[in-house]
Specification:
The protein has helices spanning about 40-55, 80-90, 100, 120-130, 145, 160-170, 200-210, 225-230, 240-255, 275-280, 290-295, 310-315, and strands spanning about 5-10, 15-25, 30-35, 65-70, 105, 110, 115, 135-140, 155-160, 175, 215, 270, 280-285, 290, 300-305, 325. It is of the alpha/beta class and about 325 residues long. The protein folds into two domains: about 5-175, Ribosomal Protein S5, domain 2, CATH 3.30.230.10; about 190-325, P-loop containing nucleotide triphosphate hydrolases (Rossmann fold). Helix 1 (about 40-55) packs across helix 2. The protein is elongated.
C-alpha cells in the first residue's frame, strides 16, 4: 500500500474544521513534500515526526513522500497534526493497516522520543469530528478528560506513538477514556463579604438579574472593583451547551485549567487598563488567540479605568447578548 489517509482537525478561530491527511509514497529521491497551506509549525513537523517514528521503534520510508492536507485552501496551523501525519506515513508504508487508520481522527503533538503531548483546542476539534460523523478520536492523555466532554464519541488516550502503533496493529488497545465526575467549581468572591455599599450592591444585583451592562464611578478605594469581582457569583451556573461554548474558547486560548476541564461558572475577565485593541478583541499573526472580550463570553468583562480611546472604540463592536460589561 503506497497511499493512505486519515483524519485530523484544524482550528478556524474557536471552531474546528476537519482536515483530510493523505500520504503517497513513490519512487524517486527520498524526501518529503508537504502541501495544503501549512504554516511554519506544520512544515517543521516533518522532522519531529521522522524522529518520533524512529525513536518509537519504527522505520521511516526512504522514498519520495507526498503529504496532502485537505481542504488545500484552508491554512493549517499548530502542532496538532503530528500524530495523524505519523500514522498516515506508517500506513502508506505498510507498517500498520491502512483501513484502521482511515477510521480514526488523530490529534496530538509528537516529541522526538515518540511521546504524545497535549495541544490546545481539543474540545472544539472533537466537537467538529462529532458533527462530521466520526465516532472515534485519539487524543493525548493530557487532553482526554477535555475530549470526553463530547457525547457520542469514543475517546482513546495515547501516551506514546508506540502505543498508537500497537493499537492499530491489533495488539494492546489504547485505553478508552470515559467522562468522570467533575469536581465542583471552587467558590469565588461572594457579595456576602461586602459590608455596607447599599447603592453599589443594588446596582450589581439589578445588572445580574436583567443582564445589563454596568458603569461604576467614584473615587479610588470606594469599592468599585470589589463589587465588580462579585458579579459572577450572582449569575446562574452555565448549562451544558453554554459550558461547552465557554470551555472551547478557553481551550483555544490555552487558559483552561488542567484540573477543571469544563467551565461551569461565568468567567470574569479584567484586562489591564493599558491593554491594546488586539488584546481586547483577539487575533494574532499565527493561530488566532481569543481576546478578553471573547474569553468573557457568557461571563463578565471588567474594564478598569476604561477611558482610553482604543478601549472606547473597540467597545462599539458587538460583544454578545449574554455578556455583562462592567466599566469603571
Amino acid at each position: 500500500m503506497t497511499l493512505a489517509r486519515t483524519w485530523s482537525v484544524g482550528l478556524a478561530g474557536v471552531h474546528g474544521a476537519m482536515v483530510d491527511v493523505e500520504v503517497d509514497l513513490s519512487a524517486g529521491v527520498p524526501g518529503v513534500v508537504l502541501v495544503g497551506l501549512p504554516d511554519a509549525v506544520v512544515r517543521q513537523s516533518v522532522d519531529r515526526v521522522r524522529a518520533a517514528v524512529v525513536n518509537a521503534g519504527g522505520r521511516w520510508p526512504l522514498r519520495r513522500i507526498t503529504i496532502g492536507l485537505s481542504p488545500a485552501s484552508m491554512p493549517k496551523q499548530g502542532s496538532g497534526f503530528d500524530l495523524a501525519l505519523a500514522t498516515a506515513v506508517l500506513a502508506a508504508d505498510g507498517a500498520v493497516p491502512a483501513e484502521s487508520v482511515g477510521r480514526l481522527v488523530l490529534l496530538g503533538e509528537l516529541g522526538l522520543d515518540g511521546s504524545v503531548r497535549a495541544v490546545r483546542g481539543v474540545l472544539p476539534a472533537v466537537l467538529a469530528a462529532a458533527r462530521a460523523g466520526h465516532t472515534t478520536v485519539v487524543v493525548p492523555a493530557g487532553n482526554a478528560e477535555e475530549a470526553a466532554l463530547v457525547e457520542g464519541v469514543e475517546v482513546l488516550a495515547a501516551g506514546t506513538l508506540a502505543e498508537v502503533v500497537a493499537h492499530l496493529r491489533g495488539g494492546t488497545s489504547l485505553p478508552r477514556h470515559t467522562r468522570g465526575t467533575l469536581p465542583p467549581a471552587p467558590p469565588g468572591p461572594d457579595l456576602g463579604d461586602v459590608v455596607g455599599q447599599p447603592i453599589g450592591r443594588r446596582a450589581v444585583e439589578v445588572a445580574a438579574a436583567g443582564g445589563h451592562h454596568l458603569f461604576l464611578s467614584g473615587p479610588p478605594g470606594a469599592g468599585k472593583t470589589m463589587l465588580a469581582e462579585r458579579l459572577p457569583g450572582l449569575l446562574p451556573a452555565l448549562d451544558e451547551q453554554e459550558a461547552l461554548e465557554v470551555t472551547a474558547i478557553h481551550s483555544v486560548a490555552g487558559t483552561l485549567p488542567a484540573d477543571a476541564p469544563l467551565v461551569t461558572r461565568p468567567t470574569f475577565e479584567a484586562p489591564h487598563h493599558s491593554a491594546t485593541m488586539a488584546a481586547l478583541v483577539g487575533g494574532g499573526s499565527g493561530p488566532i488567540r481569543p481576546g478578553a472580550l471573547c474569553r468573557a463570553h457568557r461571563g463578565v468583562l471588567f474594564l478598569d479605568e476604561a477611558a482610553g480611546r482604543d478601549a472606547v472604540a473597540v467597545r462599539r463592536l458587538p460583544i454578545g447578548n449574554s455578556d455583562r460589561s462592567v466599566t469603571e
